[in-house]
Here is the input.
Amino acid sequence: MTTMTTGTKTRFSRTLVGVVALGAVALSVSACSSDSKSAKPVADIASLSGKTTAVKLDTGFTDALTALKLTPGVVGTAQLTDGSLVFPITGGNVTYYKPGTVTPYVQGIIHHAGSGLSLSAGGTKVELTNFDIDPGISRLYGDVSANGTSVVKHAFLFNLDGSTLKPLQTEGDTAILEGTKVEMSADAAALLDKTFNTDAVKAGLLIGIAKITVNTK
Here is the structure.
């Protein structure tokens, strides 16, 4: 086993603490912000790079799609494999404060540009793309288009609930956070109901369980 120098250990430890901050995309913390100027962050990752946010689709969601005769697909660089939607992380930043010193204690943004999810029925195809995760308010935003025409930009699509988040895992140069629930927002449910002429898409519908994998170097 290779021995790390003190400096390397410190950088690695700070990176892991920052990665733990990504797990707070799952936490329901207040959207109100207190003054962070007097608080010193525990970790500050100014630039995120790689790897992915994957969502293991819940059978309740896939059954609902089948009942509505909606066919899921992927857009851009996203993949649908082994029952999971996989979206590459393309950038962003995260700042993590000691809980209780700043509200929200996790601040930043996680970008997934150039990828997304599609839902098709008959001659209608809706694309949800360019996902942004806001860890401070546990929400996922994205752009919505229908049949190639933009409907809305940066819409509130999914709630993120981390009550079932598992402990941090590390594998080589990556860290993994798994267990965040991804749930349909009221805004997205209303939009999909209107687009597909139904009332069956409900707010709070469990889409699946998220697995965030990031580089530790």
Q: What stands out?
A: Residues 6-215 form one domain. The CA atoms of residues 11 and 217 lie 9 Å apart.
